[in-house]
Description:
The complex is a heterodimer. In chain A, 53% of the residues are buried. Helix content of chain A is 21%, strand content 36%. By secondary structure, chain A is an alpha+beta fold. In chain B, 18% of the residues lie in helices and 37% in strands. In chain B, α2 runs parallel beside α3 and α4 packs parallel to α5. Chain B starts with 6 loop residues before the first strand and ends in a 10-residue tail after the last strand. By secondary structure, chain B is of the alpha+beta class. β2 of chain A pairs parallel with β4 of chain B, so a sheet runs across the interface.
Amino acid sequence: MSYNKDQQLSFRELADWVIGQTKKAGANDCKVSLSKRRIVEINYRDRKPDVIKEATTQNLYLEVLINKRYAGQSTPDFRQSTLAGFINDVVSNAKMMEEDPFRTLPDPKYYEGRSTADLQLNDPDYSKLTPENRHIMAKTVEDVCLQKGGKKVISVEAGEYDESYDELIKTSNGFEGSAQSTYFQAGASMTIQDEGDRRPEGYNYIGSRYKNDLPPLEEIGNEAVRRTFDLMQGKKIPTTKLPIILENQGVARVLGGLFDPLSGGSIQQKRSFLADKKGKKIGSKLFTIQDDPYIPRGLGSKYYDGDGFPAIKRDLLIEGTINEFLVDWYYSRKLGWEPTSGSISNLIIPPGTRSVDAIIKDLDRCIFITGYIGGNSNSTTGDFSVGVIGKLYEKGKFVQNIAEMNIAGNHLNFWNKLVEVANDPWIYSQARLPSLVIDDVVVAGI
Amino acid sequence: MKSIPRRKFIQGAALAGGALIALPVLKACKFLDAQSSGNYFLKEFGIDETLCRKLLAKALSKGGDFADLYFEYSVSNYLGLEDGKVNQSYGDISLGVGIRTVKGDQIGYGFTQDLTENSMMSAAATASTLCEASATKAEASFIPLKTGNYYPVDPDFNGIPGNSKLPLLQTVNEKCFSLSPEIVKVSAGFSSSAKRIMIVTSDGTKAEDLMPYGYVYSSVVAERNGKREQAGWSLGGRRDLSYYTDQVINEVATKSVNSALKLFDAIQPPAGEVPVVLGPGVTGVLLHEAIGHGMEADFNRKKTSTYTTMLGKKVAEPFVTIIDDGTNLNLSGSINVDDEGTPGQKTILVENGILTSYLHDKISAKHYGVKPTGNGRRQDFQNYPIPRMRNTYMLGGNATADDVIKQAGNGIYVENVSNGEVKIGEGDFAFYVSQGRMIENGKLTAPIKDVNIMGNGPKMLENITMAANDLEMFQGGGGQCGKNGQGVPVSFGMPTCLVKSLTVGGTQQKGGQK
């Protein structure tokens, strides 16, 4: 099933052929998404390779519209001989569906205006990374963890992972988009001996589009050690109400509960507690959230969204007020609204001016939350509850690590208690968020 | 992107947000025939023993203790209903082979979607790069593995035309609306898949299986006095279409609607440590998180589990027996054979309060000098097998459910759970209670909802002080356990039982202080 010609050209030729065949089979419209991904993963443990994994995968996803009926199906098999049967199957499936007047490809006018900026998603030096380089990366991180961890270390698993991804998407009504991207990741998870049978496991994995954007490997290992030792002697304390600081890299775990309710699908399906809140205030003045697809080398950066709409920079919330919902083409038609975009790219909360350390010094008593466990968020009511791990401070001084505790609330009042934003956006994620200080939160424990 | 090392259970079909990953299921496929499971890959793809020997020889060309080949062909379909119409059909085809070379506890792994000899030899060569010694020999012939059949299905289960499934969803929709005028939205889905696998090992075993899997679910939104609540339910497992009778469809609809309506009166319990009574069935998620993951032997051979030093020791009261079982009929976690060629079987983890066994794959079994327990599972051919749970449950005790609730005094009663997570080394776990009740003076009172409960696995085991005689297995589909980025279907079971103390999350401190 290999497809040997020039990748980009071949993808386009194949997409054109599939569109032609699908229309011949009776479809009014269709959309073809072709992708190919190469991954390499090397893990070390006990100073020897624990896992070596490498492969290339490909996928064709075909969406068919026929008389307002819809079906989608994927296959890894690109052979034209078998694709003919596959196309007929997808068309048959679509015919089986009930008619849905809202199911169409987007009006082509919404495809216009795509950015031509170079988002630098594809590291030109990807192919220069050799197997030896990869082993050295994993070994270096492991060495740091073992040396710095000392006698407390029970186990270290350190690794390197990288991938190269190509895609081409084409519709029968004029959209064509393609993207190539790379991703590199290095890090480690480690387990250390604590009191009794407790063996805290901490980790630090850092990813970036360009290999040279990764922090020094020693730094990655050191951070894995620090985060793991920060879990020592974690205990719950009596249930208390106090300010909490959500560490930058974990903010999305709590904030994430807002995005499903912001979506057109949830709103149309009456599963959103935010449905009637557009233009209304749901957070403090510091609660501004931007969606920016144009950050060079950003992990969420992109040229177009799932409907083929050009990605645009937008404000989802401005000073606590909801400015825009996430409305894709299908649900825009069901709602009778203009579409925006149903997906997010890079999330940004404008950073403040002070470091977390400086903020902690000014708080009488607070918990710095560095990890989460379990939990969920109800998109219909806005209630959420999640287990937390972190550090207790009093008058700026560290008191103890905490574990087995929980925070809960409702998004409609939780974000009104956002009283300060730190100056430390976490850039190794699509959620490029800084640490946030939330006042008066009940942290449940004993 | 590579996932971080976390262990999670997500009950996909009953997520509070109604989120559902639409994957597996069956379309009319002429080639997947339950009655002729033997030699499928030979017949369809020309994978014969000569080729397998060649691939294994390549995988072991630089040494290694053993190598194996995992061929997979799966077809999955999902039909979705929204706003009264079955208007979404999604499907996925997965085909490929994963080739593993193992030396001690080290793994070399290559995979390809292209079942041509050249491409598979290249994947075998990737796996072989783990070693740097002289070649190891594979067995010259492969003996077919004899297994049980824990999911007997209609031979035609995969050939059912999609349009015969549409009425199921339409019935769910109508039933939900008919049960209450307060229901304002219904969504429903039917998911099914057939996975064909063949495992060939260098120690001379060949195993084939055809694994059905699917579920029907409904999720409803109810509205009362301007307030909305949602709830859902699913039923499924390794079954064919004949399982989805009117009675099953009725149960899915009725549980969804009743659960949603009950939430209008629900409160959040006070935060802090309280006695917790787990109702029968789905609350077995707690076992899955609190003990199951910690008993997976890879964590123990690496000494990263809190249970590493507890084998053979008393970990619970004598009435507590906990089992992980691949042989339950038609449950989601049942397997005729695991994904490295060990027959499906039953493994006792805790017997009369004593920790008796870990859950082993071949690597950990060799490490501990025991037989593999049939827990080597993987998501698909793109992943190598690791120890995973199947159906995990605790046997019932002698009490009645009423006795257990009475004994709790004041606490909470857990009826439905949507997801959970554990930290292996510390043993700390959490599970999210989507539905429950307050217990006041030994009686069930106000409904509760949306509460995360935290605990520590070994402490929780010690604190199970009473169990009723009403063990119930969770029959839902769509439940996925995630570990190291791999999802596999699992199930669990639980009798009504009392845990002396767990931490309940909430916004209210005890005594009513907000």
